[in-house]
Amino acid sequence: MQLLNQILFGVYPYIALAVLVLGSVIRFDREQYTWRSGSSQLLRRKQLVLGSILFHVGVLVIFGGHFVGLLTPIWVFDALGVPHGAKQVLAIVAGGAAGILCLAGGLLLLHRRLFDPRIRHNSSFGDTAILIILMVQLSLGLATIPLSLGHLDGGEMLKFMSWAQGVFTFQPNVADHVADVHPIFKAHLVLGMTILLVFPFTRLVHMLSAPVWYLNRRGWQLVRTRRLLPHRRDNAAPIYPTRPGVQPATTRSTTPAVRPSPLKAGE
After folding, report:
1. Distance of CA 8 to the CA centre of its chain
2. Which domain holds residue 164?
3. Digit-coded pLDDT (tens) for 245-254
4. Taking the model in full, what pTM does it have?
5. pLDDT higher than 90, residue 13
6. Structural domain contains residue 237
7. How far is CA 175 from CA 43, 105, 113, 186, in A?
8. What's the total number of domains in the chain?
9. Cα distance between residue 58 and residue 70, in whole Å
10. 263 located within any domain
11. What phi and psi values does residue 51 have, to the nearest 5 degrees?
């Protein structure tokens, strides 16, 4: 059991992070056309708007909470006078609310992808699989809330913070920090690292290229006109002579066109 714990929480994190970074760089360099979200909005808009909003808002809150909560040095919270118990309560309340929103939106998107024939036929195995994995991960995260309510002193949170920061600072025996936590916490951590491992091979890569730079971009409008601009009149197509009284289609005239009279026999 000690060896398995060392592999899962001492070795596996570095494998997942290495594949995440190298895989994303290689895919962006060699397969830029596949670097997209692959939206299916044209196939069916129903359930997409509500599900997408709930899912993405929840994901952003959860990601921000995990990033700040796990990777902020412990001494920073101590210097700011933030008790670890208060941080634990905030994580339970905010994380629980965001998790419910994200799970509800994800289930709407999953139902749409599985039960709409056109969307199902245009979805790859990876599209459906990663969505199911995310739903399982969200369920595990919500399942940790009752366990966290039994540790409102923040002791369990300190273990996860020490483990996450130890991984990024290459501390030895980092797996010992989470050796005695509940199996649900361990399953949540392992599945989270697995999501990082498969990240470069799924549509999740569009998270790395969100078009936030468009917020400060000046707007512009493309206007198309049928008028012949002066500098192009010299290169316009030649006008060939027509029957008297017939207005050519390529010229502009202020006089109305005259309908030609039918030809008579002998003309």
Report:
1. 27
2. 2-208
3. 555 555 555 5
4. 0.75
5. yes
6. no
7. 46, 34, 38, 11
8. 1
9. 18
10. no
11. -65, -40
